[in-house]
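A favour, since you know our structure tokens better than I do. Go ahead and set the record down below.
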Amino acid sequence: MAQTKRKRRTKHRGNAAGAIEARGRTGRKPTEAETKSSMRDQARQRRVTKPPTWNSAAMKAGAMAVLLFILTQVGIFGGDTTVSQGILLAAMAMLIYTPLAYVTDRWVYKKNLLRVNQKR
């Protein structure tokens, strides 16, 4: 007679919301030192920054220029500024903020690389 009950293979399981989660650790429980060291390694990996790009600098400068435009229109900066004056001021700020953001990102990136290399 053929076997009717197959062995159960549970690599993934669903939760109440229907999402599938990975199975997780099934062996012995890790010691405190192992959990702390793995948490430290994860934190170090998160802290390693990406190299700066002009695109990221432009995005930051664009966000600051939009914020500056909104603040000039609300009346916090400049008092009585028209919409065209606000747009001109935001465009000028974008031109100034983009290279400034890139240089700042590059400085932070080099600082982080030096710190990571010194620890190794």
Summary: The CA atoms of residues 25 and 120 lie 29 Å apart.
